[in-house]
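Field reference: sequence -> structure
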Amino acid sequence: MTRVVPLGPRSLTALALVSAVGVIAFGWPFLAPPTSQVSAHAQDAPWLFAGLLVLLVAVVAATISESGLGPKAVAMLGVLAATGAALRPLGAGTAGLEPMFFLMVLSGRVLGPGFGFVLGSVTMFASALLTGGVGPWMPFQMLAMGWFTMGAGLLPGAGRLQGRMELVLLAAYGFLAAFAYGTVMNLAGWPFMGALASNVAFDPHAAVSANLARFIAYCAATSLGWDLGRALVTVALTVTLGPVILRALRRATRRAAFEAPVTFDAPAG
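Structure field:
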């Protein structure tokens, strides 16, 4: 399967770094002990992590571009990101109707994990600009969508598993990853609820197990229905539109010949 953006050593290092920071940014309520002073600065965390994540995502994108993101790949990245950004507002305000997720799954599958991570991040960035959703949550959305799309590129059977079985695999991944995306994004806001909902809010003095129970209750009460809608829409669109979109993406990739080296004919005479 064609890899538009091959992941070299520098790209892998940068991606591992931004992912590690992302894990800390999302999971610090479960990583910091109750006696840690991190909780005392909880209200500052969104802005601090936002600035750092924006810089690290920019480093990843720049590093990956140095490893082979040429004009043709940039053009495809722009088209897919613009399409995804345009699809996202279609479900704004409607529980779970988010059609952009199925496009991210199919694009990551065809074009690989490197391209997938860049595409997911850029799509969320473009969507935020389009909808006015720029805020401290945006870097978290960019990173989570980058992981979501990259995961599709890491699925097994690339190049040999096609047809109905591939659709089943992609639909199953989209279903589970839609819940994972919602759960991860819940972590971005849950620790800062304060006293708004004491039964499910993060308690900096509680044990990890107690906070985990609170977080599960928070997800069930606030986002389970939305995540289920997102998962079902992703599955439905993957099954119905998947064959057509996959063929179009693969045909476009072959015709663009991203990996073909540029050669020049010697002058006659």
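Note: The longest helix spans residues 224-256.
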